[in-house]
Structures are given as structure tokens and as C-alpha cells.
Amino acid sequence: MRSNTFAWYRTAVLPILVAALIAGCSAEQTEKPAEPVVVAALGDSYASGEGAPLKPSDDVNTVVWGTEPGDDVCHRSPRSGFGQAIDELSEANPDREFKTINLACSGADSKDLMYDSARNGETVTAQLDALLTWAESRGIDMIDYLYISIGGNDAGFVPVVLGCVLADCEKNGLLLGKSVGNSSELQEEISLALRNVSAALESASIKVRHIAVSNYPSIGLVGNNVGCDISGRDDVLNRVTPMEWAAAWRTIGVPLNEAVESVAKENSWQVLDIHTLFADHSVCAQDNWLMLTKEAQSVTGSSGPFGATASGALHPNEQGYAAIGSLIAKDAREKLALD
Fold first, then answer.
1. What is the rounded distance in angstroms from the CA atom of residue 339 to the CA atom of residue 337?
2. Full-prediction pTM beyond 0.70?
3. Which of 30, 192, 246, 303 is within CB 3.0–4.6 Å of 227 for a Cys-Cys bond?
4. CATH fourth-level superfamily of 38-336
């Protein structure tokens, strides 16, 4: 009798219990939440969102850049390309948690990623140090995707262009910027700066799965070589002649992008090609994705001679940052197998 009972249990009940256990384990595995996606940004004004404040104003004193500490000092905005990329990824992946931070700062050069700097009378912590502090406080030991825009301020492109607003650069040979006279020296200088950033990332206590770095748009060109003529469209930047736009890009912009792309290749970083993306949308174009002075003054106020240093001039406008955001999101989606 006992053997018959055991046989019945073995053939009828036991399989049901085993199946239930397996189903329970499977359900537990299925329901286990995926790890958070950790995404960060470092760099300069093209990453911080210069020209795209959260609350625009034509009064520089009432502009609100963002909601996080340091946003107003660094002109850091959730409407940056990075911020829009995060919004796009989050919306497309509602079942995934995203932990994100943007530490880019307007005016930053490569040294500011590794060393503290001063902005508007305040100390800005080295961006890599700030990233480590943020990650450690949240128990994060791996950054899934890191976006970087850096090198433009090392090259000194914008000061040269603004210098051409105030002087005749055709006559003085564009001698207003750093290393302008020797493109090969400038390229090597920026390459060295970017290699220092790479070394700092390699030695950091936190690891990064994927790094993407963007190059820069040819701000004042029609096509690849011809400088802008924006007569009648901008009372400030129309002081820069087509020859000056072309010379500034040839002597500064070209070696800058070559340095960015070369160091990216050395380190297996992805290059996000903003240069090509903006090819038909420079300040010359009717459909411009880079702000002229008047447009910049309307959203960030103005300062300096002629308002030439209006925060945001020569930076992406709303359409430009939307395009950059889509470019970042597309690359992150492919690298991280996201929707």
C-alpha cells in the first residue's frame, strides 16, 4: 500500500511541484529589474547647453539655466543636446531606470576636466572629480555611456572670431588667438590635451563602457571652404568678413577637429560628427542651427562690446541642440542595445 502511494505521489504530485518550482524561479528571474543605465556628460559649452537656458530672458540677470547646483554658473541646461538625448532615451525605454548627470561647463577647456577652475567668482570642481563623487555617492562603479565635447576652448576659435569683430583680422593675420599662425602646432597641442584627458579616464577608480566625443561645426562657412557673408543679418557678426571666417576655420577649426578625431581613434572612442550634421546649417544659412548675435541676446541677454559676447552667440539654437540630442541618443541606443 505504501509503495502504491509513493508511486502515485511520484507520478502525479511530484511533477506538479517541480513544475511549480521551475515556474516560480522563472517568474522571479523575469521580474528581476534590469540594472540602471548610467549616462554622463563632460566638457564645454557645446555639451552644457550654452544658449539654451531652461528659462530664457533678454536680461542676463534673470536667465535661469537649470535646476541643479552649479547650473547657473556653468550655463548648464536640461535643454542641451545631452539633456534632450536623455529625454529621448527615457521615453523610448520606460521600463529602464536612467541615472544621469551633466557636468559640462561653458568656457571649460581640457584642463578643467582634471583640475578645479574659477567661473564668475566661484570654484568649479574638476569635472572628473565631480563625476567620481556623484557615482560613489550612488554606489555606481561603471558609467555605461560618457559623452564629451572638449577642445574648442583649448583652440580659442570663438575669441578669434570675436576679435575679428573688433579689429581687421585680414590685415593683422588673425594674430588674436592662441597658436593661430601654426596649425600643426595647434593640432599637436590639442591632441596632447585630449590624451591627458584619456589618461585621466583610464586611471580613474570608475570605469566607462562607451565614450563618445563630438567634433565641432564649421561655424562660418558655406560648404567646406567659403566664408560667410551675413551682411544685413547680424549687426555684430557682419563685421567678420568671408575671408576672416574661412581663415579662422582653416587655421583653428580644421586642426581642432583633426585632433579630436585622431585621439578618438587612438582610444576607440566614437566620434559624433556634428561637423557634417551642421554642414548646411552654419550661421550663413537661412536655416541656421547656430545662433547669430540677435538671437542669442533674446534668450541669454548681452554683454561686452557691441553685445558681441552675448552668451550663446555661435552656439547651437533650439534646432541645433535637438539635432545633437538625436545624434547622441542614436549612438547610445546602438551601443547599449536600447530601444
1. 7
2. yes
3. 246
4. SGNH hydrolase (3.40.50.1110)
